[in-house]
Amino acid sequence: MRWIVRALIANLIALALTAPGLAEPGLCGGEIPCPVGERRYRAALPEGWDGVRPLPVVLHFHGWGRQGAGVLTNPRIAGAVAEAGALLIAPDGLGKSWDFWRDTSRDVPFVEAVLADAARRWPIDRSRIVISGFSYGAAMVLRLACAKGEAYAAYLPIAGTLWRQDEQDCVGPARVLAVHGLTDTVMDLPRGPGGEVAAGVALWRRMNMVAEPPEVSQLGAYACHSWVGQAPVRLCTHPGGHWIPRDWLGLVLPDVLGDQDLGD
After folding, report:
1. 141-145-151-156 Cα dihedral, nearest 10 degrees
2. By the 8 A CB rule, do 121 and 28 touch?
3. Angle at which helices 136-148 and 107-121 pack, to 10 degrees?
4. Using CA atoms, how far apart are residues 248 and 122, in angstroms rounded to an integer?
5. How far apart are CA 23 and CA 121, in angstroms?
6. Which one of 29, 90, 213, 254 is CB 3.0 to 4.6 Å from 11, fit for a cystine?
7. pLDDT tens digit string along 83-100?
């Protein structure tokens, strides 16, 4: 809990500052939500930020039935993002859910409005915006990847997928790094013939025109299938169920927020 208290104190201090060239931000962040029209998002600044350095961003979509406030107190998300030195943004979904079912999602323009608002409040490194999410939030990550492609540096869906992938028409390419439990029965990992896991990222393999077969490797405790194409695709699995693995974001954020390619 100590890192949460320190982060909230740092937020209140840093939010009182206005970086040169930015609009007057107003006080929001931490426990104080930031308004965007009739909706809102939460934000947490990394501890020790100097108030000037452009910030990488991790925008995380909460799971079904939750809200952004819970993201900021979840050490598996907020702790990893703070350790990576990034600004954490956690939007609130309408009805505590996300509109990922159709390609005309109302939440795609909402995300763009959230990031535009955050850029007026803090100096954001637009080349290092990463989109993450859990469960229904992971499906929203993939809806955004389908709609925006290379607009964001990477997409990190956790325990979620888009349905009817063969019917999707995406702008592509997009850098997708997914993780899924093999015993998940809430949002099951799609399987191909013989139970092969590559079906779980069929859309992104097609969208990125990847080479086959995949490279199979270990990333910590995770078994990973990686494809090279117009943008990399990786699916890592673990033997567990429907949850955010404890060390996952801490493992992958240093790579996707840096200059190296996945796996380098």
Report:
1. 50
2. yes
3. 80
4. 27
5. 7
6. 29
7. 999 999 999 999 999 999
The rounded distance, in Å, linking the Cα atoms of 96 and 62 is 8
pLDDT given for residue 196 in this prediction? 86
| Distance (Å, whole) CA 170 – CA 203 | 9
Lowest-confidence pick of 6-15, 36-45, 111-120:
6-15
Tokens of 203: 């859309």
At 26 the pLDDT is 60
With vertex at residue 143, the alpha carbon angle to CA 61 and CA 162, rounded to the nearest 5 degrees, is: 100
| 221: amino acid identity, one letter | A
pLDDT at 9 over 90: no
Are 231 and 238 in contact by the 8 Å Cβ rule? The answer is no
**What are the structure tokens assigned to 175, written together?**
């850098």
- Residue by residue, DSSP assigns 115-151 as HHHHHHHS-EEEEEEEEEEETHHHHHHHHHHHHHGGG
**Gap between the Cα atoms of 97 and 136, Å rounded:** 7
Measured CA distances, 204 to 2, 5, 90, 165, 240 (Å):
39, 39, 25, 9, 23
Residues 6+ apart with CB under 8 A from 47: 3, 6, 7, 10, 82
Could you report the per-residue pLDDT of 218-253, keeping only the tens digit for each? 999 999 999 999 999 999 999 999 999 999 999 999
In three-state secondary structure terms, 206 is helix
